[in-house]
């Protein structure tokens, strides 16, 4: 594959940079905090993301019938890298995990209700997979959804943990167990986070950022808010890992940190000797630079694979 941007792609990158220069705001951009879209919610940040929406840059890859541009994923990648490079909010889970999954398997009702709001940046989501006994192994989740035929829906009971943005999001994209087979008994639901029987309790990290425990106590969810088919939630979660890879994780912060380290090594001394003259340090820096370049190129390969309809290589 060609790792160089086309003239159109370079032009788009320049347009994005001009837009960011024109909208520079310390309340929006902070390179000391990673992925502000996931951890910070302020009026200034929401207003900025509405400006991004007004540019037509949310849902670039979505089909035109749902307000998108049927564009190539490389443009989402360019946009997200530029935002990450400024320490700004990124397009993230609304456009990626939620939006693209709804486009793939959501009902017409869910598409009509949520997709326009996502494109206008009028809704924030939290994602609930992790539990006290189900971290990286999402198939082990135990939050229980019990069928309630009399009301045409489900009763959810249990706990999620490490749910970043649950304290300010409006909707919870949550997986719950609806049957016993480990990988074939999970269903995805959309639940309003202002539900009176949902409790959100803050957890403060070592970096002084907030994440959350979320508790469900007989929370009723109507059938209309089941995402896709019952018991296929784990499959949808897995598919979404490919749908959102280049809208959730970015290379720019890695590159910036490597640049800072390189500048330090170039000028620092130890016992009046240049650190850059130490062969062990030089070897380590060469290794880090090589690994960073590999990471950048792998990111571009993921974008290229996604555009061809495949998963990550």
What is the topological layout?
Elements: H1 7-22, H2 36-39, H3 43-54, H4 73-85, H5 92-105, H6 108-119, E1 125-128, E2 144-148, E3 153-160, E4 171-177, E5 186-192, E6 198-204, E7 210-222, E8 226-227, H7 233-243, H8 245-248, H9 252-267, E9 269-270, E10 273-274, H10 279-307
Parallel strand pairs: 1-4
Antiparallel strand pairs: 2-3, 3-7, 4-5, 5-8, 6-7, 9-10
Can you characterise this structure?
The protein is 42% helix and 18% strand. The protein is α+β, with helices and mostly antiparallel strands and 313 residues long. The strands form three sheets. The chain has a four-stranded mixed beta sheet with strand order 1-4-5-8, covered by helices on one side. It has a four-stranded antiparallel beta sheet with strand order 2-3-7-6, with no helix packed on it. Helix 5 (92-105) crosses helix 7 (233-243) and helix 9 (252-267) packs antiparallel against helix 10 (279-307). The mean pLDDT is 90.
Keywords summarizing the entry:
alpha+beta, Butyryl-Coa Dehydrogenase, subunit A, domain 1, Butyryl-CoA Dehydrogenase, subunit A, domain 2, 3 domains, four-stranded antiparallel beta sheet
Number of strands: 10
Give the helix tally: 10
- Listing every helix as H and every strand as E from the N terminus to the C terminus, the arrangement reads HHHHHHEEEEEEEEHHHEEH
CATH topology of the largest domain: Butyryl-CoA Dehydrogenase, subunit A, domain 2
Query: Helical amount among residues, as a percent range?
Result: 40-55%
Strand order of the largest sheet: 1-4-5-8
- Ends distance: 13 Å
Largest sheet: number of strands, sense, barrel closure: 4 strands, mixed
Can you tell me the number of structural domains? 3
Mass-distribution shape: globular
Radius of gyration: 21 Å
Low-pLDDT segments: none
Mind telling me which CATH architecture of the largest domain this is?
Beta Barrel
Sheet-strand content, in percent, reads 15-25%
The secondary structure category is alpha+beta
On the 0 to 100 scale, the average pLDDT is: 90
CATH class call of the largest domain: Mainly Beta
Question: CATH H-level name of the largest domain... which superfamily?
Answer: Butyryl-CoA Dehydrogenase, subunit A, domain 2
